[in-house]
């Protein structure tokens, strides 16, 4: 849902004041930045929520500062006081999104039982598809454009985490707890099948029809994906 519109009431939120702040920061490059006030934090949150709505619909290239300001319910100069450039808003959103996206995989416990751990991962990814569809579409749009604004996060943070969890999966396979397969493509497959329910939600609901396109579709998907992945990962007796 779009954020509740609020009126700008910050007298400091003008480009002139921002220019003075920038000049002061340039004169004292090592000065510690002042912490944001509660009102400033709240206004940044309103802007970021509005930007998520706009970016998820129009993508980075199609979105404009004017659109974000309109959804946020504030003037363009007021918005620019908090975020001087569209790129900065997008970067903040993507950094927070990637942290949220990585959390379920980070929770996979190497000391746990592999089947409950993988089942939990599938479920959490589906919950994210259900609860954060705009974020999923924003991430997908960035990937389709070649991830120009978050490529370093992908090549460092995401890759390091996947490398770590691939080793966990390989260890379980070496111990005979899982059928041997490529751990990277296993993770890719879980991403693809779970995020499908966010990125192609309109298609999923249309094909399922009115009788099955309610919230229960995520539970149906969870049971199916558990059966698909866990059966495929069950070790088979050697011939």
Q: Explain this structure to me?
A:
- By secondary structure, the protein is mainly α.
- The chain folds into two domains: 21-84, Homeodomain-like (Arc Repressor Mutant, subunit A), CATH 1.10.10; 89-233, Tetracycline Repressor, domain 2 (Orthogonal Bundle).
- The chain has helices at residues 15-27, 38-62, 65-72, 76-82, 86-106, 114-131, 133-144, 151-174, 183-199, 201-208, 216-233.
- Helix 5 (86-106) packs parallel to helix 8 (151-174).
- Residues 1-31 have low confidence and may be disordered.
Write the layout of secondary structure elements.
Blueprint: H1 15-27, H2 38-62, H3 65-72, H4 76-82, H5 86-106, H6 114-131, H7 133-144, H8 151-174, H9 183-199, H10 201-208, H11 216-233
Helix pairs in contact: 2-3, 2-5, 2-7, 3-4, 5-8, 6-9, 6-11, 7-9, 9-11
């Amino acid at each position: 849902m779009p954020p509740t519109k609020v009126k700008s009431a910050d007298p400091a939120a003008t480009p002139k004041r921002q220019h003075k702040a920038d000049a002061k920061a340039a004169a004292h490059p090592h000065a510690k930045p002042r912490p944001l006030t509660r009102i400033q934090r709240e206004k940044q949150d309103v802007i970021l929520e509005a930007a998520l709505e706009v970016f998820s619909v129009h993508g980075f290239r199609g979105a404009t500062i004017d659109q974000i300001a309109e959804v946020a319910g504030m003037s363009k100069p007021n918005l620019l006081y908090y975020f001087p450039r569209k790129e900065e808003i997008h970067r903040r959103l993507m950094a927070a999104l990637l942290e949220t996206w990585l959390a379920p995989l980070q929770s996979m416990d190497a000391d746990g039982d592999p089947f409950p751990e993988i089942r939990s991962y599938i479920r959490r990814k589906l919950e994210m598809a259900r609860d954060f569809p705009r974020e999923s579409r924003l991430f997908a749009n960035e990937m389709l454009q070649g991830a120009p604004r978050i490529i370093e996060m992908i090549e460092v943070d995401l890759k390091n985490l996947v490398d770590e969890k691939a080793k966990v999966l390989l260890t379980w396979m070496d111990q005979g707890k899982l059928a041997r397969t490529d751990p990277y493509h296993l993770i890719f497959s879980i991403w693809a099948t779970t995020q499908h329910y966010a990125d192609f939600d309109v298609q999923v609901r249309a094909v399922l029809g009115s009788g099955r396109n309610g919230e229960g579709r995520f539970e149906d998907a969870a049971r199916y994906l558990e059966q698909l992945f866990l059966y495929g990962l069950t070790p088979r007796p050697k011939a």
